[in-house]
Design a protein that fits this description.
Blueprint (H helix, E strand, L loop, with lengths): L31 H4 L6 E7 L2 H10 L9 E7 L9 H8 L3 E2 L1 H6 L4 E4 L12 E4 L65 H5 L3 H7 L47 H4 E2 L2 E2 L3 E4 L2 H10 L1 H4 L2 E3 L3 H9 L3 H7 L7 E7 L16 H11 L5 E7 L1 H7 L1 H7 L1 H5 L3 E2 L6 H7 L2 E4 L3 H8 L4 E3 L13 H8 L9 H10 L5 H6 L7 H13 L27 E8 L4 E8 L10 E7 L13 E5 L10 H11 L5 E7 L2 E6 L4 E5 L7 H13 L4 H7 L1 E5 L2 E8 L23 E4 L1
Helix pairs in contact: 11-16, 13-14
């Protein structure tokens, strides 16, 4: 028995790799029966490799809600290089966490994992394997050194699990735990191909798939549904997937014997697949494991599909205003990713500032979704340090655990790579530009992701960015592959997975419907760049319209017809810009005692910066108070999701410098054009506060931030 504390390492003597820590005593442990209030529960263990795999387990955890006969447990294998964030994420669930050593010694009824790290063959109970991405697509030559490999680790016959003498299997349940049905036509899936036409084509594969690793016939389903192990190949309905595998490729992570077998025996009792094309490749790569396959959809994608009606709410949460497009920058974690510097061209360092500098701030909102392994591999503080300039220019850094799916649902376009997030974006029908992809392999050439990478348009680092994105969206036609191959059971994963889990537990499934947790509404992220903005404006007549384009921290002057002025938040990181600015900005509550009041702050800041023309105190998403150089105090208001108040202030500045008067603005308001969107800004005199009306007359100083009504 391994001690209650300390860390272990893999060795032939039977010591165990993984995290150390104190053994827990309740609800499992040597004396748990004495202390646990409910000690007769069946035990379900979530086996975590890193944060990425943990998030996929959290997708299915709600399937056990409200069942007083189930005790949930969690453990971390300690097998990942990316261990950061795991403890905090598991603590957030409130589920008891066992040290890996104790988990291996504890009898459980069902273990669920979304990775293949650690000595999974040593876990007691039935083992279910989920994917932690969009299927199985990447090649990886060998398992991690020091963890389970084809010739290391020792599950012995006396443990009673996954040995030639007595293999625990999803089929062992009398009810047929592997009997998750293939989706039917009423689930909007591919039509069932002609079975007779396939029998001859697949006879050799089916013959292998219908035997266990020891050559014995695999148990057959006793009921009518079609089992995954007997499902027809996806190539029958997806001709593009009929290509023969390339000779001698590197093993596909999650589909090859290197990863799925221990001493010739499948490690998992049930391997969950989301689409029959994965089963085709599994049959070819590792027929011994094909008998454990279960088609049960994709719960991650199902949560996105269920949340599609709330797209506009998500857009507002990310601070997207009317007339703006949300561009999501996405990167997976490896050196050849968009964020990585190990590919042919390191695109990211030049792309990031271009997104906020070239794309007008009132026409585009930019968000970044970075893989959790980037966050926890380099450290959240380092990520924010690398992205500091972009964040100050308005970049939204999306929570990589809770909010990345909502960002895709809110997006208008994605710039990404070969990771799962970009593929999910394409499956949702979004236009995707590939900024990076593996040059020398790294993907199974037969996989849907590889085919997507081959067909998706490429990002051109030399093209003008706004024109590049305009062309992408104008000419976009969704690729059929991602939408078709992500899942063969859209919306059905909850029912299929819960049925599988409870069959493996050999316990009746609850009568209530199986439901996944809805995606949360992200906290509101009000866009307010602290970087200086260069503002290009021109005023046209008949009728009077202020055309405006703001660029955050650009490397060069904005191109186009008109006049350029600078608008700068008072709390900019570079205070040397303040004496040069035309429009001074501040965002705070109207009753924030630190600034006295909007009237006091605007007077104070204009006195401090005598060359500035206008000061704007932004009190919310739809209003601001502005003071001109001559002391005139005005209120600009509009629709909450219309023009940003800071842009309204710049529009007033342009109006006054073009020779128009405050009286005209008070009478007619302002009409402001950003890109293809027209906004209405109301201009009024504040009814309270010192200096509410300090005289009339023609003004030549700028007016600030406003809320606007917008029409597209």
């Amino acid at each position: 028995m391994i001690g209650a504390t300390g860390t272990g390492s893999v060795s032939d003597s039977g010591t165990v790799s993984g995290t150390g820590g104190r053994y827990i005593r309740v609800p499992v442990g040597d004396e748990a029966a004495r202390w646990a209030a409910r000690g007769r529960c069946k035990r379900v263990l979530f086996v975590v490799h890193n944060v990425t795999s943990a998030t996929r387990l959290l997708d299915v955890l709600p399937l056990f809600h409200d069942d007083l006969g189930i005790q949930l447990l969690a453990t971390c294998t300690g097998s990942s290089a990316f261990e950061g964030g795991v403890d905090a994420l598991l603590a957030e669930t409130g589920v008891p966490v066992l040290p890996w050593e104790q988990a291996l010694e504890t009898k459980v009824d069902l273990a669920i994992t979304a990775s293949l790290g650690g000595q999974l063959h040593r876990v007691s109970g039935k083992l279910t394997l989920l994917s932690h991405g969009v299927g199985y697509n990447k090649t990886l030559a060998t398992p991690d050194t020091g963890h389970r490999t084809p010739d290391t680790g020792h599950r012995t016959p006396d443990t009673g699990h996954r040995t030639p003498e007595g293999r625990a299997s999803a089929f062992d349940s009398p009810s047929g735990a592997n009997s998750a049905v293939e989706p039917t036509a009423d689930m909007d899936t591919v039509a069932e191909p002609d079975r007779d036409a396939q029998n001859a084509e697949n006879a050799d594969v089916d013959a292998e798939a219908d035997t266990n690793a020891d050559g014995a016939p695999a148990p057959k389903a006793e009921s009518a549904p079609t089992f995954a192990s007997n499902a027809p190949p996806a190539s029958a309905t997806c001709p593009s997937l009929r290509n023969d595998p390339a000779p001698g490729p590197a093993p596909v992570f999650g589909l090859s014997p290197d990863w799925l077998l221990h001493k010739g025996i499948p490690i998992a009792d049930a391997m969950v697949l989301s689409h029959p094309e994965q089963l085709d490749r599994l049959r070819t790569a590792c027929p011994e494991a094909a008998t454990t396959a279960v088609l049960a959809g994709d719960p991650c994608f199902d949560r996105m599909l269920a949340a599609r009606p709330y797209r506009e709410r998500f857009r507002k949460a990310f601070g997207v205003r009317r007339g703006q497009r949300l561009v999501v920058l996405n990167s997976t974690w490896n050196p050849e990713s968009l964020f990585g510097d190990g590919g042919g061209a390191d695109v990211f360092p030049s792309l990031l500032p271009r997104l906020t500098a070239e794309l007008p701030a009132d026409e585009y909102r930019v968000a970044a979704v970075l893989h959790p392994n980037i966050w926890h591999g380099h450290g959240p503080g380092q990520i924010r340090a690398w992205l500091d300039r972009a964040l100050r220019a308005g970049l939204v850094l999306v929570d990589p655990l809770h909010d990345w799916r909502q960002a895709l649902l809110a997006a208008d376009a994605v710039i990404g790579d070969h990771g799962s997030v970009s593929y999910y974006a394409a499956a949702l029908g979004l236009p995707v530009l590939l900024g990076a992809a593996p040059a020398g392999g790294g993907l199974d050439p037969q996989s849907p992701v590889a085919q997507f990478v081959g067909a998706a348009p490429r990002f051109d680092p030399h093209a003008p960015l706004a024109a590049h994105l305009d062309d992408l969206m104008a000419n976009h036609s969704p690729l059929p592959g991602p939408a078709h191959l992500t899942t063969s059971a859209p919306g059905a994963s909850a029912a299929l997975l819960r049925a599988l889990f409870y069959r493996l537990l050999d316990t009746p499934e609850p009568e209530r419907p199986a439901l996944l947790e809805p995606l949360r509404l992200p906290p509101h992220q009000r866009p307010f760049a602290t970087a200086p903005l260069r503002v290009l404006t021109r005023v046209t007549t008949d009728p009077y319209v202020v055309h405006l384009a703001r660029h955050a921290d650009p490397w060069y002057e904005p191109a186009g017809e008109g006049h350029v002025h600078m608008a700068t938040p008072e709390d900019t990181r570079d205070p040397g810009q303040l004496p040069l600015t035309d429009v001074l900005l501040r965002e705070a509550a109207a009753d924030d005692l630190r600034f006295g009041s909007p009237e006091q702050w605007t007077a104070e800041v204009l006195a401090r910066h005598p060359h500035s023309s206008l000061a704007a105190y932004i009190t919310g998403p739809h209003a601001c108070t502005v003071r001109t150089r001559t002391g005139r105090l005005l209120r600009l208001t509009g629709d909450p999701d219309g023009l940003d108040p800071g842009a309204s202030a710049s529009a007033l500045h342009a109006w006054l410098t073009a020779g128009r008067t405050i009286e005209e603005a008070l009478e007619t308001g302002l009409t402001v054009r950003t890109g293809h969107t027209t906004h209405r800004v109301r201009v009024t005199i504040p009814t309270t506060g010192a200096g509410a009306d300090m005289g009339a007359g023609s003004e030549t100083g700028p007016g600030t931030g406003a809320d606007t009504d917008s029409t597209t």
